[in-house]
Amino acid sequence: MRYFLSMLVLFFLISGPSISQSLDVRGDFEILELAKRKSVEEVDPNLASIQLQELRNLELEIVARISSERRFGQRLSAAVSEQEDERFSARLSEFHASLCDAKNPARVLPGQLRNFRLVVSELDNKYSDERNFFPVQSLLSELRNFIFPRKSLFTRDSDGKKIVAKRGISEFGSVEEFDCQKVKPELLTLIERVTDFERKLQAVTTSRIQETEQTTKALEEALPPLREKIEASKEALTKARTRQDLSSNLYLLILVIGAFGVLSIMVIRLFPTVVALEWVSSGQVIQFVTVTILLSVIMSLGLSGILEQNTLGTLLGGIGGYVLSQGVGRAAAHRAQQEARQEVSHVETEYQQIYDAISAALPTSTISDEDSQKVAAFLAQAAQHKDAGNFGMAMSALKQAQALLER
Fold first, then answer.
1. Is 132 helix (H, G, I), strand (E, B) or coil?
2. What sign does the dihedral 231-232-235-241 (CA atoms) show?
3. How far is CA 68 from CA 207, 223, 267, in A?
4. Residue 154, strand partner residues
5. Residue 293: exposed, middle, or buried by beta-carbon count in 10 A (0-12, 13-18, 19+)?
6. Cα atoms in the 13 Å half-sphere on the side-chain side of 78
7. Which of 37, 111, 112, 131 is most buried when burial is the number of CB atoms within 10 A of its CB?
8. pLDDT at 105
9. H or E element: which one contains 266?
């Protein structure tokens, strides 16, 4: 009989309030719809924060629902296993087989009737308050009507000496006179009703287990996308807050950038004059300040989410390419200038040596006066070309003067 109690409890769980009502949470369909469409779309950080908290609460609600559905499914599975191990209809069949006395078929064994009465009384007391549980109420009514349709199964006669049994409106005599052969067909009908009840209970329980599994699966599938939305909402909230902070502190950013530019220019004065002049004349100081300010502004706009990823990458790549190209070009130009200076220095040195040698040899030379005048004219031409920076023409004039001296 212990199993029949658990079976009735199981049917009460299936026919009674749903698991969502017992947890006082929203229905599965509503939760799944909220998980699909809920996301942070507000630009205002305060409203976005509220929506993000709603998403987190929805996640906790889904996790709690999954846990409760799993526990409920485990209880149902355990009850089904117990129902398969021992059926109340089989116990009633055993009771039906041993109901009558073997020596006197018309006599019901008092011990059997007492045990059956105790079981039915226990079931009746346990579920007497379940007014809406009609399947159990109907079955209990049949059990009561079978044994004691009035007040109780057993009572005593007027003298208080003999135990008699009541059945229907008529009143039988002693227990020994209770007609067992009339009772057994009625009990057999009741066993068929209990068997049908167990079969329906099995079908309802199996169906409820499948519904629980489907609900759990749907909730588990809705959980990962919801968590992705939570992460995306966190990023959106961070961008919104950064954008708000940047807008409110924009004047500070302008002051910092301006102070940095002025400080960079003033720091150049601390270096040697040659280095400072080189940097200033080459434009590196202005370039450094300009690029730094641009990078600061672009990074601030990028971190605040105002600039998208593609735009931010394009701007940074453009600035990086400009800096690299300027560095390579400046290095090549500087190397060319150094080579030109070295070449000019070498030619100038050679020119001065030849010019001094001709000037020193001219007064003591044995050439004619006409040639001496030509040499002096070549020297004057060489000096003019040299002052004009045309060392090629100057060297050519010196070589002509040197050729006249050597004749």
1. coil
2. negative
3. 17, 15, 69
4. 165
5. middle
6. 8
7. 112
8. 54
9. helix 250-267
Q: Count how many Cα atoms sit within 13 Å of the Cα of residue 45 in the half-sphere of its side chain.
A: 11
Residue 163 Cα distances to 109, 147, 341, angstroms? 13, 15, 139
d(CA 397, CA 383): 9
| Whole-angstrom distance, CA of residue 106 vs CA of residue 211 | 50
- Give me 84's structure tokens: 């398969």
Q: 4 pLDDT exceeds 50?
A: no
The string of DSSP letters for 224-241 reads HHHHHHHHHHHHHHHHHH
Q: Which two tokens stand for residue 271?
A: 């270096």
Task: Look up residue 184 and give its two tokens.
Answer: 């057994």
- DSSP labels for 342-390? HHHHHHHHHHHHHHHHHHHHSTT----HHHHHHHHHHHHHHHHHHHTT-
Distance between terminal CA atoms of the chain? 148
With a CB cutoff of 8 Å and minimum separation 6, the contacts of 27 are 20
- Asked if the model's pLDDT at residue 330 lies above 60, the reply is yes
92: Cβ contacts below 8 Å, ≥ 6 apart: 187, 190, 191, 194
CA angle 262, 266, 271 (to 5 degrees): 150
Backbone angles phi, psi at 108, to 5 degrees: -90, 135
- The residue-averaged pLDDT of 219-242 equals 78
Please name which of 215, 175, 95 lies closest in space to residue 143, comparing C-alpha atoms: 95
Q: Quick one: average pLDDT of 48-65?
A: 78
DSSP structural state of residue 154 = E
Residue 48's φ and ψ, nearest 5 degrees, are -65, -35
Residue type, 317: G
Global confidence as pTM: 0.40
Token output for 375: 């040499």
Strand order in the sheet with 171-174: 154-156, 163-166, 171-174
Count other C-beta atoms under 10 Å from residue 55's C-beta.
Answer: 22
